[in-house]
Amino acid sequence: MNSAESVRPRPLGKILSGILLAGSLILLKTKAFLIIVVDFFRGYAVNPFEGFGVVQYLLAAGTLALSIGAYATKAPLSLGIGVVVVTLIHEIGHAVAIRAKKLRAGVMVFIPFVGGAVTLKEQPRSAYDDAQIGLAGPIFGTAACLIVLQIFKWTGDTRWLMIAAFGFALNLINLLPIGMLDGGRISGAVTKWMWVLGGGALVYKAYQQPNPLIILVLLLVAFQVYASIVREDDESFYDVTIGQRAGIAAAYFILVVFLGHQTYLAFSKLIGLPGR
User: Fold this and answer.
1) What's the pTM value of the predicted model, to 2 decimals?
2) Which tens digits make up the pLDDT trace of 112-132?
3) Burial of 133 (0-12, 13-18, 19+ CB in 10 A)
């Protein structure tokens, strides 16, 4: 054997060294990513009811019971309870985001056949914070509906499918870019032109099917848009970076498409059930 052959590098050794190096880099990157993710979600490990007093708890419990009773007049009691619990989880999502942003929630109320709301004692510091608070509700509500849908798959009980279907639909409607709805809050961080689209759809609905509720919603939306225009003097509120705007837009449209798909599938399955 000559000296040149004895010092020739071994391909297997190079491959193993490369794999170990690549694996080490992936582990380091993964660790850094996990640290960022854990740090992000640690900020949301808060008590959503912090600062609530007796009056707030009584108001939440009373309107929750009222909503269940109202649903029970139109559907089985179990369905009403299920839909209201999904709504509760949706509103808890908002409350968690509010506390994570170091803001204080006011009251939590439930409105029969509409949903619920969490008021704020302090206004968000930016449109980006406002959009995150708006997104948190539908994200929590969607997660709750997916759990309910899985229970239906395990049990075959159609009541769970009905709760999931109505829950998906309510969360989807909440994402309409209209005034005080979650979509209205979110669109402020994406583009306020979305309000024109949502407002136009609402005006058309009020013209085609006028009723006191639609007119009330239209007035509230008009007030919300006016308040937003007045707040334009505070340029810092709408000072959203391109990255933040893109992130909110991506989360919003992904959620809209996913909820639309799940709503369609759930109601299609309901319609296709025997005896319907």
Assistant:
1) 0.75
2) 877 888 888 888 888 888 889
3) buried
